Amino acid sequence: MLYSFWESCWQERRNDAIKKNNNNFIERSVTGALSFLKESVFAEEYASKKGFLQARDPRFKAAAALLLLISVMLAKTIPFLAVMYLFCLSLACFSGIGLRFFLKRTWVFIPLFSLFIAIPALFSFISPGDALWSFSVFGLKFTITRQGLFGAATFVLRVTTSVSFVILLALTARHTELLRVLQVFKVPRIFVMTMGMCYRYLYLFIGIVENTYLAIKSRIGSGVHHKKGREIVAWNIANLWQRSYQLSDQVYGAMLSRGYRGEYRTLNEFRATSGDWLLIGIAALFFALMIGANRAGMV
Amino acid sequence: MKNTVFELADVHYSYLGKFPALCGVSLEIRQGEKISVIGANGTGKSSLLALLDGLIFPDTGVIRGFGENMSEKVLNDAEFSKFFRGKVGLVFQNPEVQLFCPTVREDIVFGPLNLGVPGEEIRKRLDKLTETFGISGLLDRSPHQLSIGEKRKIAIASTLAVEPDVLILDEPTAGLDPLTSRHIVDIILQANIEGKTVITATHDMHIVEEVSDVVYVFGQDKKIARSGSPAEILSDDDFLRENNLVHLHSHRHKDKIHAHPHSHAD
């Protein structure tokens, strides 16, 4: 009796542990990845708002973003970069994007892309120069130099401004518009079509994964051992591959049925307005300023 | 015989050469007819439609479309392919298959664009279909954002944009609510009134009488078990029950439960 009591207690604790740790890990991974994909790739909350950038022709918007990005790359001083960053933030404001949300969205990526690279550049062993501050760790002396600090700050600000412009473009344009812009910029049509189909069917497959996961959960409950969980995930991947293979066959049939013969054609319906010319004008002005300032050695 | 659109003689088709889908099908479809293909699951209805659309080809037997012996070689000919794709439109059972473009607008214009229809004409067709289907609010949306009924409508619109003479529909009302189902039937009937040949594969016995002049019933042996007018076919309860097309429907009248065949002949 004591043994069976002990066994039931142990089993209960084990099940709890499975629920709390292993299964939660699988569930969190699956649902987290799916919801991130849905939110970041498919949410068009800001793209469908009324605002300055949303009203722009996607061709002009993408061209302006490209010019601004090149200008950011050419800028070598903090004041110039700061002006461009402020311009980006004001564009976000005029486009109905909350500053808090926008800063949160952009600054998530900054440590990833720049801080880890910029931090070593602060020190004298990478950037020798005038010492600003010295300290010791385990007997090793570290010195932050003025040149290092300036270089790291410039780098971080450049990355921040570039990432902000790209995120601003992605937030204010629908994916479908961006795909059409790629065609206007002479990216091979078959490449654009493949990207469009990936985007289109990714959502379908997310739905299938979600439903499969729910179906499994409804039959076997939430207490899945991590080993079984891994098996389920592997089986899911294989199942999804099979489905995507079948679907690709059927989609090709549907394309043939409507006259597809290897060349993808599209209908161009872009229309430029004065606002578009204003945006591209400002971007061109920044670009020209940077080129001029570079030649004069001012930036 | 002049107005024959499709003619099938003893057509056999199997998947991967070993899973039979059609075992000796012969039929003739004339211009302007309304044809229904009914049968239980797995009796070869979808395979027949894919054959009629020139997407698959018979293992043995002959299929002639618009007077031409349809084979892979013939369909690979650019000129005939363009002619045939402009003449025949297939609405797939699963609209997810058919709506592969990033937006509804692009899906609708895909067919005419690929068939070389001039831009101005495509815009006219798009405007007409947008009005007919009441889909102006959906044009810039991605197909994944639509409901099943909306997807089905767009799939039909994308096929009608080609302005085919023959409209083939695979289970057009499956999974739809009664109102959307009604709307789809009206669209099918309108297409027929405009002179199109309409071929519909369906399980939905409610719509068979309306969408057919001739009904072909496919049996489990993957052959045509019987063909005839909708009145003849739908009034034969024993035959329909043998072919899994009606069921005994039991329900309560006051305190008595009684059962009778459930069909929709009228």
TrEMBL record, chain B:
UniProt keyword Translocase present: yes
Signal sequence, start to end: none
Residues of the ABC transporter domain: 6-246
Entry membrane topology: Peripheral membrane protein
Compartment(s) of residence: Cell membrane
SMART domains linked to this entry: AAA
Protein name (database record): Nickel ABC transporter ATP-binding protein
